[in-house]
């Protein structure tokens, strides 16, 4: 995927976007022919920006994330990213026969990091996600929240400028999810990553994002966008989070009713 660059006054080149999605559509074969899942999506993610994609189940959120990740190709349109994105799923996808640290070291190995440096770098990443001392722990010894922390550390090991997250906290209990919201916000602000985060949870979208993008039901189109001007730290129960969540929920309900889904 190509990167669009801009030249600063000092002559250095910087990326103008972390991801650029231009008039992207995606169809899949179906019993009645090609089924249009995404229709003419245009969306930019700025460097360092946190964007959430929100919509009803089946609206094409995960499909769009897979296209940005390069796991599939659009039927029409173009996608460019600032380097290769890192991807984190709802399931942690850790290798159970490896320790937490070795799972991270494997990502470092695939990136070409010398063997002599991998252990120390894995330890640094575990400390970043607040799992210092967990290098030797096996996957079955970790709680669900700890596994997702390791998965986050493994994604960060790729040193991508763009992190794609597909409902990574959906399977966790409310308290663990709340803690990981804090951790993700802290890591995003410390690392200046760009994040494109898929969720169907409106309050999660508002709590995390600088911008919330609502997709209509199939075919997925951008139905509305909101800029989230709420200072950090944010809480799920904050009045400002709740008020914007109500507004977005009403729009989401309207989209679901309009397309006859329930």
TrEMBL record:
- Does the keyword ATP-binding feature in the UniProt annotation? yes
> Which organism is this protein's natural source?
Streptomyces swartbergensis
Could you identify this protein by its name? Sulfate ABC transporter ATP-binding protein
Q: Keywords assigned by UniProt? A: ATP-binding, Nucleotide-binding, Transport
Establish whether keyword ATP-binding is in the entry. yes
SMART domains in the cross-refs = AAA (SM00382)
Q: Which Gene3D superfamilies does UniProt cross-reference here?
A: P-loop containing nucleotide triphosphate hydrolases (3.40.50.300)
InterPro entries attached here? AAA+_ATPase (IPR003593), ABC_transporter-like_ATP-bd (IPR003439), ABC_transporter-like_CS (IPR017871), ABC_transporter_ATP-bind (IPR050166), P-loop_NTPase (IPR027417)
Name the PANTHER family for this protein. Answer: ALIPHATIC SULFONATES IMPORT ATP-BINDING PROTEIN SSUB, TAURINE IMPORT ATP-BINDING PROTEIN-RELATED
The Swiss-Prot or TrEMBL record annotates one GO molecular function as:
ATP binding
Q: Which residues form the ABC transporter domain?
A: 19-244
């Amino acid at each position: 995927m190509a990167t669009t660059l801009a030249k600063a006054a000092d002559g250095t080149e910087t990326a103008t976007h972390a991801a650029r999605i231009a008039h992207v559509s995606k169809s899949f074969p179906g019993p009645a022919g090609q089924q249009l899942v995404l229709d003419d999506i245009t969306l930019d993610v700025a460097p360092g920006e946190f964007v959430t994609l929100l919509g009803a189940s089946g609206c094409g959120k995960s499909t769009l994330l897979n296209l940005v990740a390069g796991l599939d190709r659009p039927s029409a349109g173009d996608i460019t990213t600032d380097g290769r994105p890192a991807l984190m799923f709802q399931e942690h996808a850790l290798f159970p026969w490896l320790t937490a640290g070795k799972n991270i070291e494997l990502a470092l190995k695939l990136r070409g990091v010398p063997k002599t440096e991998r252990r120390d770098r894995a330890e640094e990443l575990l400390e970043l996600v607040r799992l210092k001392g967990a290098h030797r722990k096996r996957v079955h010894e970790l709680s669900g929240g700890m596994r997702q922390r390791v998965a986050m550390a493994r994604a960060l090991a790729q040193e991508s400028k763009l992190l794609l997250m597909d409902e990574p906290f959906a399977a966790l209990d409310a308290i663990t999810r709340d803690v990981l919201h804090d951790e993700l916000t802290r890591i995003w602000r410390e690392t200046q990553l760009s994040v494109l985060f898929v969720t169907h949870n409106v309050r999660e979208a508002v709590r995390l994002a600088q911008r919330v993008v609502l997709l209509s039901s199939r075919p997925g189109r951008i139905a509305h966008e909101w800029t989230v001007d709420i200072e950090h730290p944010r809480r799920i129960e904050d009045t400002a989070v709740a008020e914007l969540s109500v507004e977005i929920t009403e729009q989401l309900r309207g989209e679901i009713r309009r397309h006859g889904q329930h």
